[in-house]
Amino acid sequence: MYKRVRLKDTVEVPPRHLADVTPERVKRLLQDKLEGRMDEEVGSVVSVIKVHDIGDGAVLPNRPGVYYEADFDAITFDPQMQEVVDGTVVEVVEFGAFVGIGPVDGLLHVSQISDEYLAYDGENQQLASTETNRTLGVGDEVRVRIVTKSVDERNPRDSKIGLTAKQPGLGKHGWLEEERQKREAQMEGN
Length: 190
Fold this sequence. Notes:
Structural class: alpha+beta
Order of helices and strands: EHEEEEEEEEEEEEEH
Largest sheet: 5 strands, antiparallel
Radius of gyration: 23 Å
Strand content: over 45%
Helix content: 10-25%
Number of helices: 2
Shape: elongated
Distance between the termini: 41 Å
């Protein structure tokens, strides 16, 4: 999920900083350019951490800055298909819950939360079951599996990650703890 990767990219150094083309300056420019950007190959760039090499600068016609190719290390977040992740519910809507996993949100569709019918309670920002009185709301911790992934490099906010909690060992942490306690009580009773 989180990886340290070695990347290359070109960064524009504005004229006012041409006397200060240091690894620290280039690192700050790369951070401004790349952090939060989504890329199909490496995922979401969380942080540029170290610049190793700065190439020779190139001047482009009618452009004020000088362009340098930099070799650097970055921390990226790249959710993998079928990966099990823990996250926090950040929003609840009629059709499901958005779960924050690292720097991105995934959709846990209402059909992928439970076999029970879950009604939307907009006033309390939660999905609730009438059968077991279980609820899923903003701030709840969940364990989910990534089942779909569509990355939009141009508009990272439009990237889509689909999640499921309908497998053993997945779901709201509180529900998982209840199930564990039930199993332990059954084992003690035998």
